[in-house]
Structure formats: C-alpha cells, structure tokens
Amino acid sequence: LKCTSASSDGPVIIQVGGYTGVVVDGLRFDNGDNADGLAIRLDASLHTTVRNCTFSNLGTSAVYIAGAATDTTISGNTMYGGLYQILWNDTSTATRTNIVGNTFDGLGEISEAIEINTPSGLAANTQIVGNTFNNFLYNGTNTVGCIGIAHAGGVLIEGNTFTSCDTRNIHIEDSTDYVSIVGNRFVDAGREAVYVVLGSAAMYNFTISNNEMIGCGYQGYHTIYFIPGGAFSPFENVIVSGNRLYNCGKAATATHGIYIYYVSDGIISNNIVKNQKGSGGSSRGDGIYLDGTGGSGSLLCSGNLVYGCSSGINVTGAHNNTLITD
Predict the structure, then answer these.
(1) Which of 200, 204, 117 is CA-nearest to residue 152?
(2) HEC sequence for the chain
(3) pLDDT tens readout for residues 55-73
(4) How many CB atoms lie within 10 A of CB 1?
(5) How far, in Å, CA of 73 to CA of 231, rounded?
C-alpha cells in the first residue's frame, strides 16, 4: 500500500476506530515520505493486531496509537526510518499494548523507534519484548532515544537487543512509574544505555536487572544514569541488580558505569562493571557512582564486582542511611 497524497492534514493509509478484532497481516506500506503521513492509526479499537508487515518511507509514524486503543498487539514487523516508528498521541489512554518480536531500523537517520508520551492521557501497561533496534542516529538534542517514555505507567522492556544506536537507547522522564528493564542486550550505545531523568515530581518503582551492556557511552556518557531534572524530587524504590557492563565509557574522559543521583530507597546489587576506561588509556571512570546531592537516602549497595575502574564505588554528597556491603 502506497500513499501519494500531499494532504496538509497528514495522509493515513489504514485507520481503525470503534472496531474489535481487526488483523492487519503481511502488508507492505510505503508512506511516500509524506512528512505527516501515518501508515496505521488506531483510535478506540479493541484487540487489534498488526503483524508481519513492512513499513518504509514512513513520514511521521508506521503505527500511531490514539484514543483508548486497548489490547493491541504489534508483532513480527520490520520498520525502516521515519520520524517515529510507533508513536502514541498525547491524549492517548491506550492500555495493554504489546510490541513483540519486531525489527526497528533507523537507517542511520534521525528517528525514534518507540515514543510513549501521553501527558494528558497516561498510557498504561505496555510490553516491549524481544525486539531488535539498529542504527538510530542522535539528533543533536537530549530527548531522543530508541525507546522514549514520558507520562506513562506500567512498562515492561524485556529481552530486546540494541545495536549501534548513537542515541540514548532507553530514555525515561516526567511522571513515569512502574518500569522494568530486564534481560536486554545493549551494544555500542553512543550515549546512555538507560537514562532516567526526573521531572517536577517524584518517580517510583524502577527495576533495571540482568541486562548486558557492551561498549556503551563511548561519546562521553554514563551507561546507567538516574539524574534529577528541573526539580529536586527523588526517585523512589529503585533496583539496579545483576547487570553486566563491559568496556563502557570509552570517551576521551571516561564516564561512570552506574550513576545513581538522588534516589530514595534504592538497591544496587550483584552488578559486574569491568574496564570503565577512557579511550586515552589513562582516564578511568568509576564503576558505581552514588551521588547524594539533594539528600539521597536508604541505599543498599551490595555484592557488586568492579574492576578496571578508577574507583569501585564512589560515594559523594549528602547521603542518609547508605549501606555498602558484600
């Protein structure tokens, strides 16, 4: 299916709204590089499946999720380039969206694979599982990522592979809670593999566990990074455990492997950080950096293995009740 319209309202090839059980299977979509083009738009749909399709010359998005789309499955598709590949509308109240076994290729362009940003809708219960992300380019700002999430709740990111993505691989911000990032593999991320930044309110319940990160942060960025944004509100209930970081931070000045900044109630345990070393050879970053600026509290750092770094664990700032043990 090819779209040739130059409509200023943005052409849509398939729109699904008010229907149950629609399946889009095995089609090839070409949006003709229409800047505002959408291949598939989902509104108040129920049990919609998009599978085994190929999307190219995307324009704005391959799949655009608006309204109260519920129980949506997007699986086995291949998507190339575009501004976004799967995008939520700001007002979307979509729930139970499953993105499984797709291939997202940025073609070395400035694009984003998955963007969930629903400030007036608050999308919930999204699973991003077993996908492959390749060749997404940094756009010169700090907001883009292979996966970008803001104003959402209940997100599982599991078993995905990220390769040669110049962007932040996962970027989370602004009132996003209950996120699990588990069992993923990150290779040659130019910036952070996982970046979490606070907005104006506290953010709760993050688990980052059993991920493998190789050669990440080589443009001068930390590999796992929790940082406050515009307001000092803490991250609460954070678990960073069982991750393996190898040969990361190889910028001219080495960066840190795991950087925890202003976290209340956190566990950093059983991680392995090896060779957090700058490209110049003499500069090494810290394996784990615990920054208490603003008053981090109730941190447990235990059972971690760190070597080939400047410091194994660097503790700075005003901590309250931080325990470091084996």
Answers:
(1) 117
(2) CECCCCCCCCCEEEEECCCECCEEECCEEECCCCCCCEEEEECCCECCEEECCEEECCCCEEEEECCCCEEEEEECCEEECCCEEEEECCCCCCEEEEEECCEEEEEEECCEEEEEECCCCCEEEEEEECCEEEEECCCCCCCCEEEEEECEEEEEEECCEEECCCCEEEEEECCCEEEEEECCEEECCCCCCEEEECCCCCEEEEEEECCEEECCCCCCCCCEEEECCCCCCCEEEEEEECCEEECCCCCCCCCCCEEEECEEEEEEECCEEECCECCCCCCECCCEEEECCCCCEEEEEECCEEECCCCCEEEECCCEEEEEEC
(3) 987 778 999 999 899 999 9
(4) 13
(5) 36
State the average pLDDT over residues 198-206. Answer: 82
Instruction: Report which of residues 294 and 164 the model is more confident about.
Output: 164
Find the mean pLDDT for residues 141-151: 78
Phi–psi pair at 185, nearest 5 degrees: -125, 125
Q: What percent of the chain has pLDDT over 90?
A: 50
pLDDT digits (tens, 9 = 90+) for 103-119: 999 887 777 899 999 98
In this prediction, residue 141 carries a pLDDT of 60
* pLDDT above 90: residue 125: yes
